[in-house]
Automatic annotation (TrEMBL):
Superkingdom classification of source: Bacteria
SUPFAM superfamilies listed in its UniProt record: alpha/beta-Hydrolases
Location of the PHB de-polymerase C-terminal domain: 199-399
Protein name: Polyhydroxyalkanoate depolymerase
Pfam families named among the record's database cross-references: PHB_depo_C
């Protein structure tokens, strides 16, 4: 029932947008008067209402390398039911160190990391985990929980081979650190040369956010009943249990409502005053935020239970395929933990726990950076990412060969 409500809302808003666009055009074509401009701006705002499951494009077809424009093509290196290993291949230049960027699997497409990839691409051979909308994955593909995510990362690192560097943004931090630890203990030849964790909740009990406190206060049965829905026909994933992307987006907006309301007010002013550049930038950002994907219920519930409620990895009690996960087994993978001073999603301290867990690493291979004044998103997109954080990542990768 819940999923049908989200779909009905999405379909209704899809019909509303063209009408709002047409009415706004008519008002803008009328003699220029402030009330008409303001009404047109409100109608244009209505175009951006509601979520969609349309996957955006990365749009990274050219990059500047050494002052020259270089063509970029997307290649699928490996395909699996729940995602693709995607490479951004540069034509006619040396690819640079191989880097796997692990995107969050928490309600948005991997294109959310467009700015992350764009900044890394000139100097690195960038690969990305391009996750699939769970409502498009047939039930026959089976479940996909935290253990399956770890297994998928190990498989893709194995496919890329020795010398690969690894970077994870936000949600997959625990899975990425676990995969690295398991590969290190097994002396896997493709274990990563370096690992960067950006805004990742290794131990969300530290300075817990309201969402983390709620996750610990409520039983897992509540989340299963209130946050999980079944994909209906005619989607390919019919019958699969998921955490709907629209529900994730609604929770995100409610958690940061004043910020989103201020952004919409600013956009109304941009439109009313004819500030085309600022309006276009707002549209690009919200088009990305409102493009959502469903998350496998197993992964969502595992994250609540095993990361937020019991903090298995931080407590030293995590197991994978019957094997204990021991971060202390990591001995030759350089580790860089990046946190934001004002990160409301993953406050400082939650990620830097990884440095203590990886006590088998010499101090010269453990690094921490606290970005002054940075919120969560600004750790991987925008000016601070491009000018300060990305160069730190690139420097560590260069040092590790």
């Amino acid at each position: 029932m819940l999923y049908h409500l989200f779909e009905a809302q999405e379909a209704w808003l899809a019909r509303l947008r063209p009408a709002a666009r047409q009415a706004a055009g008519l008002l803008r074509g009328s003699p220029s008067r402030p009330p008409l401009r303001h009404a047109a701006a409100l109608l244009e705002l209505a175009e951006s209402l509601g979520t969609t499951h349309r996957k955006p494009e990365f749009g990274l077809d050219r990059v500047r390398v050494g002052g020259a424009a270089v063509a970029v093509r997307q290649e699928v290196v490996r395909a699996a039911p729940f995602g693709r290993l995607l490479r951004f291949a540069k034509e006619g230049v040396a690819p640079g160190p191989r880097l796997l960027v692990v995107a969050p699997l928490s309600g948005h497409f991997a294109t959310r990391l467009r700015d992350t990839v764009a900044a890394l691409l000139p100097a690195h051979d960038v690969h990305v985990t391009d996750w699939t909308d769970a409502r498009c994955v047939p039930l026959a593909a089976g479940p996909f929980g935290l253990d399956a995510l770890v297994a998928q990362l190990i498989d893709w690192l194995g496919a890329l081979g020795p010398g690969t560097h690894l970077l994870a943004v936000s949600q997959p931090a625990v899975a990425v650190l676990a995969a690295t630890a398991l590969m290190a203990e097994a002396r896997h030849p493709a274990r990563p040369r370096s690992l960067t964790l950006i805004g990742g909740p290794i131990d969300p009990r530290i300075d817990p956010t309201p969402e983390a406190a709620l996750a610990r206060a409520l039983p897992i049965s509540w989340f299963e009943a209130a946050e999980v829905a079944t994909v209906p026909a005619p989607h390919a994933g019919m019958g699969r249990r998921v955490r709907p992307g629209a529900q994730q987006m609604a929770a995100s907006v409610l958690a940061d409502l004043p910020l989103h309301l201020a952004a919409q007010l600013a956009q109304w002013q941009n439109l009313a005053l004819g500030q085309a550049g600022a309006a276009a930038a707002h549209r690009r950002r919200y088009d990305e935020l409102l493009s959502v994907m469903d998350v496998p219920a197993e992964l969502y519930l595992d994250t609540i239970r095993r990361v937020f409620q019991t903090a298995e990895l931080a407590e030293g009690r995590m197991r994978w395929d019957g094997r204990p996960v021991r971060p202390e087994a990591i001995r030759d993978t350089a580790l860089l933990v990046i946190e934001g001073e004002r990160d409301a999603s993953c406050p400082p301290g939650q990620g830097s726990v990884a440095l203590a867990l990886c006590r088998g690493l010499p101090a010269t291979l453990r690094h921490h950076h606290l970005q002054p004044g940075a919120g969560h998103d600004t750790l991987f997109e925008g000016a601070a990412w491009r000018r300060e954080i990305c160069p730190l990542v690139a420097a560590m990768i260069r040092r590790r060969g």
